[in-house]
């Protein structure tokens, strides 16, 4: 899609904490994907390669939470769950939910999704 709309910069929110369970969060995967895009897209072959930016890669979950809070991100509009409940809310049990909960706790913040639903 990036190539079809003429985008040259792609941003993705992967970070180091996710490496063990999510192999596509590793820096070597990102580098390999960029290389593949240089070889497999017209833009790449014509010298207009796609660059993948990973601004959260080296941040801890708590650093990510703090950054979002400083930018006034409404975390109530987000979730990280890979196995959501039937109503779309996070399960609270999967690795991603546990990592998010730990990030909020370490940041000294309350996850709005951990509050009872009204």
Folded structure, characterized:
The protein has helices at 27-40, 42-45, 61-70, 95-107; strands spanning 9-11, 51-53. The mean pLDDT is 90. It has two domains: 1-58, no CATH class; 61-107, no CATH class. It is 35% helix and 5% strand. The radius of gyration is 17 Å and the shape is elongated. The protein has a two-stranded parallel ribbon with strand order 1-2. With 118 residues, it is mainly alpha-helical. The chain contains four helices and two strands, in the order βααβαα.
Helix fraction by DSSP (H/I, runs of at least 4): 25-40%
Cα-based radius of gyration, to the nearest Å: 17 Å
> Gap between N and C termini, in Å?
38 Å
Tell me, rounded to a whole number, the average pLDDT: 90
Write down how many β-strands occur, each being a DSSP E stretch of 2 or more residues: 2
Number of helices: 4
Strand content: 5-15%
Structural class: mainly alpha
The helix/strand order is EHHEHH
- Supply the number of structural domains: 2
Query: What low-confidence regions span 5 or more consecutive residues with pLDDT below 50?
Result: none
Shape: elongated
Please list the strands of the largest sheet in the order they lie side by side.
1-2
Largest sheet: 2 strands, parallel
Quick take:
The protein is mainly α and 118 residues long. It has four helices and two strands.
What structural keywords apply?
118 residues; mainly alpha; 2 domains; two-stranded parallel ribbon; 4 helices
